[in-house]
Protein 1
Amino acid sequence: MKTILLTFRKLKKNKTAASLGIAGLVVGLVCVVYIFFWVNDEASYDRFHTNIDRIFVVHAYLEGGTKKIDFRGCPPAVAPALKDEYPEVENTCRYLPGEYFEHLVSFGDKKSILKTAYADVSLFDIFSFPFVYGNKGNPDDPNQIILTQTVAARYFGDTDPVGKIVRFNNTTNLTVAGVVKDIPHNSSIQFDAVVPLQNLVALWGRNDILTTWYNNAFTTFGLLKSPAGFDKIASTITRRIQKEMPESTNFLRAYQFKNGYLYEQNNIRNVKIFSLIGLMVLLAATLNFINLTTARSTKQAKETGLRKSIGATRGNIIKLIYSDVAIICLLAFGAALLIAIAGLPFFNNLIGKQIGLSSLFSVAPLGIFILIYLCTVLLAGSYPAFFLSSFSVSETLRSGFHSVKNKGVLRNSLVITIFVVSIILFTSTLIITKQTLFLQKMDIGFNKEQLIYITLEGKLKERVKTLKEEIKRSPEVTSATATSFLPVVVGNNGEGWEWEGKDPNFKPLVTDWGTDEDMVKTLEARLIEGNYFSNDRQGIVINKAFAEVIGWDSFVGKTLSAYGQSHQIVGVIDNIQYNSLSETCRPMVIQQVGDWATRYLIIRVNTNQFDKTIKSISKICETIEPDFPVQYGFVNDEFAKLTKAEANLKKLVSIFSVFALIVLCLGLLGVVMFLTEQKTKEIGVRKCLGENVSSIVVKLIKPFVVSGLVASAIAIPATWYLMNRWLQNYTNRIDLDGWIFLFSIVISIAIAVATVSWQSWRAATRNPVEALKYE
Amino acid sequence: MIKLSNIDRYYQSKFQRSFVLKAVNLEIQQGEFVSIMGPSGAGKSTLLNIIGLLDEPSAGTYTFLGNDMLSLTEKKKIEYHRNAIGFIFQAFHLIEELTVYENIETPLVYKGVKSKERKAMVADLLDQFNMVAKKDLFPSQLSGGQQQLVAIARAIIGKPMLLLADEPTGNLHSDQGKQIMELLSGLNKEGMTIIQVTHSETNAMYGNRVIRLVDGIIREENVQPAFFIQPN
Ligand SMILES: Nc1ncnc2c1ncn2[C@@H]1O[C@H](COP(=O)(O)OP(=O)(O)O)[C@@H](O)[C@H]1O
Ligand SMILES: [Mg+2]
């Protein structure tokens, strides 16, 4: 109690230095708290499933061809085989993600497009999606649907909807079997509704769809009786497909579901990056705090000496220093936590997460937070504790005593460290921004601006030609093309392509894209050889990447074959970058899209007044298909999703580097205030001797510039190393050039100089008489 | 009570030793009031600090009440600081964040005296020094003389047998200085051994003996019974 009082009195006494130090600490901690929120959220992915330790995932991968390619899922026959053949497996489930299927679900006049997952209903036995109403229903009945709570409320309000019948896709009637609680945002399984897997038979029109040993579309989950069973499955599953189809090049691999989000999808990379940033900012803020608290160390050392002379033990002194620091840190932590919580909605908004506070108030996060607190106290307290007791008592009590002389080096190294952290973060921000912009502005082989797309359902699909003609009639529409996939995400591939002279063991994975004859015109894609196919010019078009794989000199007129059918090449198209921007483009074959495969109509418009155009397009759609609400979007937005990870990283790193720069500025401000105060007398004398103001200011600023330069010498190689490692994830990437480093150094030092200039100038222009009167 | 023999104190720099004290022999009896005088830099504070266990001589022997003081453990030293030796300084060295009351109380806290007892002891001293009304003020709110009074109160609250005062009136006006000197003289009469450093001949007269230190060597000692030349 007494110590708290004492600490507060001290704070009051050293208002500026203390408040700058604490402000820096608070800013740093807010940053750390956000990083902690974020990392905690990432680490909490999927952890809410009670069976998390017993769930595993099986997926296929492709060996042969140019490189190993992973699929998200594996053939549908794998799941039942697992359950039959491994006594360790309690249950299995095949799952097609809700993100892939958007279906119209209507109840009376209430209509909604729902992200619908197709799954074995064992999904609800394996995973923890608790039911609010009903249950998973009858496993053998395909005509049922399970909804999430919010979605169910859209149709049925607060009432129990179990047994109600909804219309699905405008084709089938399904009975509501149950309603589950809304899915937490930190779940990698997301859906609005689940329908039994058997419904795929109707959707895809094939009877064997659920029993083949090929088709890697099915995400396959298994539940083990005990976690220990995993190793056996992982080590024996690899060649299971070959038992049925010896010629298959698809192999199987199992991983634990709990590792899926972080490790399989490599989200751990950003977790590592941000943990590192968090540590660096915390370090900078703590050093800054130490620096500013020891600015008053002359007085503190005297006090320590005095306390010793009246009988304090070393233990007493150390306890005093630590409790002092602990109280201040507690204040700073409290303030940081409050600020962070207050700003959480803003932060969530910025990074597109829904981090709630509830996730924080459990044992592990609180434990880690307390640990961070203790580390900070230890770090911030140890230096003064060690430093202050390094003086002999008699020395501190002499009248001319100054603790500062031997502190210059130390203060400089603290300032330099803070500088280093700021420069690393700032430069990284610039590099990440540059890389993100590079990806976003990269030549992707077509013009993605001013492209609207409509998802085709029901009669829109059947009568796509009429729809296209109608739409093209409006003056804002330049052109339109029907396609199987949007050019940014093409999800169909196979390895069946053969050509003359091909090594029979070489089985490249080739993506299949279907479009009509207007694709090149609509997307403004570029042909590099031949022509695009049309009604009177039947054949296929391959992309440049595939052409390079084949390696001929010319392609037009030659043929490729797939599954016994031969196809004539009519043209070669420049690469359209799809699926991922970070890798080089993969081989692709473009064919005339079949009616059943047509899913999108992409429309080029010549205006940016999208509202009006969309209204008129919607009207046309509604007259053709009144039962489905119109689903439209922008190709541009879909494209932006490809760089979402980078864009998020960019946002986060820029926020954190701003935090670091603020810490730096606060720190420098504190140091310069302290220095000018110390040098008041010297400055006065110099002025009396006729030195002019600018020369004095330059003398005061110079050490900061030197610190900045020394810090740069450390920060550049560190940043270069870190960023180079990061950039290694990208085949399409920028080069690290000197300019970006130079720019960031100049800016950092300029900010530093700006921060210290005003104080220095004020000190230098003070009336010398006043200055000499001091003391 | 105090016996210093052949005390040297030097600082070793790269190429040479510079002596601050050289072959100092000094004996002080219990109940004495000794004044150390000499030019600035003569080594007065150093001598005082050695006696007060805040500094250690480079050579020589030092006994206090017959005990060797140069082989003390850190723990023993703290015991002496808590129970036997009190300090006052030219610059007062009060703890700025503590009130008058708390400053005086601090040594008792370190000594482990119970809160109730502490209260009584501090109250007693405050009363004796006429500072009851000021007990909740901070040092910065007091005049120099008042601050030094607090420092003395703090130095003697542990009832030390030896009080070391390094230019206790150096920062004070002469009438404030006089007040302090009279207080010290009073304490001496009650039996406390006092060693003070002073530049003022007048103040030196309060003591019974003057030691003149020049360049680390004792040049002159004269004994003068305090009652003999009591200034007025
Ligand atoms: N740490 C030190 N290193 C070197 N010389 C010192 C140190 N401390 C004190 N001195 C020197 O010791 C001499 C005596 O100091 P001091 O005892 O304070 O003198 P006084 O109190 O008589 O003015 C001075 O010349 C001073 O420069
Ligand atoms: Mg002195």
Protein 2
Amino acid sequence: MKWILQFFTSSIGQKIIMSLTGLFLILFLTVHLIGNISLLFQDGGASFNAYTEFMGHNPVIQTVSKGNFLFIFLHAIQGILLYFKNKSAKGSKYAVSPKNNVSWASKNMALLGTLILAFILMHLGHFWLRFKFFSDMPSIAYDGVEILNAYESVSIIFSNPIWVICYLIGLVALSFHLWHGFASAFQTLGINHKKYTPILKGLGYGYATLIPLGFAIIPLYMYFTN
Amino acid sequence: MKLTLKIWREGGVYANGKLETYQVEASEHMSFLEMLDVLNQQLIEEKKDPVAFDHDCREGICGSCSMVIDGRPHGPQTGTTTCQLHMRHYKNGDTIVVEPYRAKAFPVIKDLVVDRSAFDRVIQSGGYISVNTGQAPDGNAIPIEGDTAAKSFDAATCIGCGACVAACPNGSAMLFTSAKVSHLGLLPQGKVEHERRSQKMVAQMDKEGFGMCSNVGACEAECPKEISLENIARMNRSYIGSVFSSE
Ligand code: HEM
Ligand code: SF4
Ligand code: FES
């Protein structure tokens, strides 16, 4: 078993952790956005509430959700570790900062990641924490069955312009993180090919633009239609 | 042309290192190193300590002439070593800042000279083919596909200058190590030990204290031999593959 430990503490192994957890989070974000689109349906929250009810009580989803927490944690811890190790491997700085055209995001992944982490904590505080642990959450009855009115909670948060701005900032950070991160994750796995790398890069730029944009539409729409 | 040079001095009277300003009169036909020679001649005549810098072949093949010129390893000209950089790229009155490579694994010895023996140890750990060569084999005795030979040759052009490490914000040596791994691993003679070689060289690279690759690409942009990031992916593939498939 020593080899496993050796692998995951090697430079490439540590990057594999970043890459695989990052790709899982990319998959998660896609599913998360598809579900959240139901917030935009003009049905007083019926579809969104049904969706949260399903997600909250499905054992498979609940297991995946625990994995998701674990992977965010792993990705963040490993990312912060990488940052400090790399900083010390560089040692001192140049008097003249280099003027090459490498992407800003690629050099600031840890800063962007920390912003995303702050965003995730705020987001969990807004919804997950309350849904899970607060007893006085609004509820609503459909066909006589009383369920959590998650829609109501979301629209309360998104009626506050400060929260809306905080969400938008978090999403901009996410967009930059993925602008570099998406294609980078494949390069880390050793996937670099004359035919496919340009496609992966294109997909990455598309993903980094469209997914955060999709998420951003929700608070904006809810704020302006409330 | 008259130039103002700001050069990093370290060692001797400059214990902690600092940028020192000099004036030099150069001609546009000089190489960057010849311009530094003029400065050093001037310093010697003034009974001052000349600037220490590494150089050997002065024709772009040995990889000695390590320095960072205005924030770029080997200066502003892409695909060019410092010794092949000519002063015609500068104009009268320019100010040029010259610093040593910066990376924990490349400690400064004096002024612009850094200790790059970490690269030698990475090579010693696996950058070879362990078969007796015997007599020189017939040129085309082993058929090698043209593109593969070209890729191997491209990787083999790495001169071990260390500009990749100097350019990398993480002080990572992945481009250098992967160039060596690819150069040997792509050819039939080197393929035999390819995976073992990746493991050994990566282990030594880590031990030397180089940083981890964030796929920034500054190395590829600054490499005087334009070594491609493809090599890093190739090394990652063989490293991952060998860790999981070897016994
Ligand atoms: C949902 C949120 C997130 C997603 C989808 C995501 C995705 C990714 C991806 C795909 C990569 C590229 C991996 C590679 O280069 O192989 C990456 C890198 C990185 N992430 Fe995240 N990430 C997220 C959140 C975070 C958080 C919360 C942190 C916390 C600090 C973080 C820190 C980093 C760092 C430092 C890197 C660069 C690692 C390196 O190459 O040196 N990320 N991320
Ligand atoms: S990869 Fe390029 S920059 Fe790095 S040592 Fe080789 S020639 Fe120099
Ligand atoms: S002195 Fe040999 S490459 Fe510049």
